[in-house]
Design brief:
The chain is mainly alpha-helical. The chain contains 20 helices and no strands. Helix content is about 70%, strand content about 0%.
Length: about 375
């Protein structure tokens, strides 16, 4: 073998050890999608705490593995596989719920309990999408995992998908977080379409003061009621109300502060990054993934519309009218959907403050999606 042939052989061997030898057009498409997520997070400020980890994870997950090297979340023994274990086994979502509970103030919901119904009404999107997925030939377990996207609660969607449809976990997680990030884009047109200007101008009375005793009793009482009705929700609801009790009891402030800052930040980084890494093109760019995104969008739109329409229905029977915009916050994208309600309301009347009212169905939506997940799990588990 002469020198030229030797160098050519070595160059070929070197090329074969790079990812360029295995990269496909699908990988390039997914890498561009990951970059787009990062763009939306930085330029548009759409859920940057979620989209930056997810977007970079998508880029990482679409660098092809070299033969003989365990690198991706799907390769046994890889580091990413161990990190992904928390997603696959549903460990990260309850920890997220612990932090959410430690951040959540249920006072607005307690001050006006009737607004809880709006959070419950928004879950109609979950069950209608479940039926739609069945019609499209998904299995009952897959349909249940897809339907929960309508709750606009990423951790809940991941938790249920890990239990019912682990093969669809990546697509469901990306769809759920994508629609959560796009709340400011998706919800306003639906809100404007389903309400009149007169309805958007409705002003609601300020929430009443809720005592410390009520706030302490609530997480315990609500946990018992919710989990006795839907035992499948015990993990998510339990961690949510445990975190809230840490916050409200005032004697465990160090624990509450850790849960709502360091812990939830660490878990959000791991969850977002690992979900992104799971979207390698061969596993993600499939017909099923496209259908999941379509059904997820329909589910989210129906959930938003259901909350608004139920508020309009309630106004037929109550003296103190509810601004129907508040119903859009029934999806559990906390606090983004409540902020959207505030923004849309103030376009009509800059002095109409709907944010605190919208937080009531917003946090009720968190409970509703967790309970819906528990019901679906208990009915569909093999």
């Amino acid at each position: 073998m002469n020198t030229l042939e030797y160098l050519s052989t070595k160059a070929t061997q070197l090329y074969q050890t790079t990812a360029f030898a295995e990269i496909e057009s699908g990988n390039v498409v997914m890498i561009l999608i990951g970059m787009f997520f990062i763009f939306l997070a930085i330029k548009k400020h759409y859920e940057p705490l979620l989209l930056v980890p997810i977007g970079f994870g998508v880029i990482v997950g679409n660098i092809p593995s070299v033969a003989g090297m365990a690198l991706s979340v799907y390769d046994e023994g890889s580091v990413l596989r161990y990190l992904y274990f928390g997603v696959e086994k549903g460990i990260y979502p309850p920890l997220i719920f612990l932090g959410i509970g430690a951040m959540t103030d249920f006072s607005t919901m307690l001050s006006n309990p009737r607004l809880v119904l709006l959070g419950a009404a928004a879950q109609i999107g979950v069950f209608l999408t479940f039926l739609g997925a069945l019609v499209l030939s998904f299995t009952p377990q897959e349909a249940g995992a897809i339907g929960i996207i309508g709750g606009a609660d990423g951790p809940t969607a991941i938790f249920l998908a890990a239990r019912l449809a682990p093969k669809l976990l990546g697509a469901i997680a990306i769809a759920a977080y994508s629609y959560m990030a796009l709340v400011p884009v998706i919800q306003p047109p639906i809100m404007m379409l389903l309400t009149t200007r007169k309805e958007r101008l409705i002003r609601m009375k300020p929430p009443r003061h809720v005592s410390s005793r009520e706030r302490i009793i609530f997480p315990i009482a609500a946990f018992l009621i919710c989990t006795l009705l839907a035992p499948g929700a015990i993990v998510l609801i339990g961690m949510l109300f445990f975190g809230n009790l840490l916050k409200e009891c005032t004697v465990a402030e160090r624990l509450a502060n850790t849960a709502r800052t360091a812990l939830i930040d660490i878990v959000t980084i791991l969850l977002g990054f690992c979900v992104g890494c799971s979207t390698s093109a061969p596993h993600f760019l499939t017909k099923q993934s496209i259908l999941i995104f379509v059904l997820g969008a329909a589910s989210f739109a129906v959930a938003t519309a259901s909350g608004i329409l139920f508020a309009k229905l309630m106004n037929l029977f109550v003296i103190e009218k509810i601004n129907p915009l508040v119903g859009a916050a029934g999806v559990s994208a906390v606090p983004d959907s409540a902020r959207v309600v505030q923004i849309v309301g103030q376009r009509e009347d800059p002095h109409n403050h709907l944010l605190m009212h919208a937080m009531a169905p917003n946090v009720a939506g968190v409970l509703g999606s967790a309970i819906a997940a528990g019901v679906l799990w208990s009915q569909l588990a093999n």
